[in-house]
Write a structure and sequence with these properties.
- By secondary structure, this protein is mainly beta.
- It has two domains: 125 residues, Mannose-Binding Protein A, Chain A (Roll); 68 residues, Immunoglobulin-like (Sandwich).
- The chain is built from one helix and 15 strands.
- Strands 1, 2, 3, 4, 5, 6 and 7 form a seven-stranded mixed beta sheet that branches. It has a five-stranded antiparallel beta sheet with strand order 8-15-14-11-12.
- A hairpin with an 8-residue loop joins strand 2 and strand 3.
- The longest helix is centred in the N-terminal third of the chain and has 14 residues.
- The chain is elongated and about 60 Å long.
Length: 227
């Protein structure tokens, strides 16, 4: 899942959730998070309570960015090494979160509204909260500009262009299937291909799209920006 290291990335991620993917700010309600909707990011302290790391790969290995709790908890928290943070309350000058309210809140998520519900007492839209990891939520994934799961893009001569695009794009190479995902990992279109140059005209949303190209040997993943 996504790691957020500066305000520009924070703004891009939140915009991708609300505008790009069109996630409703009321699509769910998390009782242990103030009764609002959230989207998962790659932050957790599940390995060491109070030590927050970016662990998007879920391998217990990541950069520490925060230690302790916000003012709604023990009040002893601080960013590690000047790391960027956007915990609930940050916009007001003092992070209220994370607070490990009632214990077990070991995973970070972006709030889609102020909380508690109907207020901004503890956090504002776009800020982070710590909630219980069993909550069923959308999530934001982060990938390299171009990656291959089993091999390399060049081995299958895969090219995806133009990028950015204004509404259609071409997949050139020995592709068997093309899948398109939105910025929070939802499959929005899939195409079987039988030619070496396929034009995709449908199934795109404005902003960030993720294109997965499946060949006989490899699976290739690439970001695609739609203007």
């Amino acid at each position: 899942m996504v790691e957020i290291n500066d305000v520009a990335e924070q703004n891009a991620v939140y915009d991708a959730i609300i505008s790009g993917a069109g996630v409703s700010t009321t699509y769910t309600s998390i009782s242990n998070g103030g009764g609002i909707a959230y989207v998962w990011i790659g932050a957790t302290d599940s390995n060491n309570e109070g030590t927050w790391i970016w662990d998007g790969n879920n391998d217990a290995d990541g950069n520490t960015f925060w230690i302790g709790e916000g003012s709604n908890g023990a009040g002893d928290g601080s960013a590690e090494g000047g790391a960027y943070i956007n915990w609930g309350g940050t916009s007001g000058g003092t992070p209220n979160e994370p607070d490990d309210y009632s214990s077990g809140q070991d995973h970070g998520a972006i709030g889609l509204a102020g909380w508690p519900s109907g207020t901004t007492m503890l956090g504002s839209p776009g800020e982070w909260n710590d909630i219980i990891g069993t909550s069923l939520l959308y999530f934001v994934i982060e990938i390299d500009e171009t990656s291959s799961i089993n091999g390399n893009t060049q081995s299958d001569n895969i090219k995806i262009y133009p990028n950015p695009t204004s509404g259609e794009f071409f997949v050139e190479g020995n592709a068997n299937k093309v899948e398109i995902y939105n910025s929070i990992g939802q499959l929005i279109a899939a195409y079987e291909t039988s030619t070496t140059n396929t034009c995709i005209k449908h199934g795109l949303c404005s902003g960030l799209n993720i294109v997965k190209v499946i060949t006989e040997r490899n699976t290739h993943v690439q970001n695609l920006i739609v203007n």
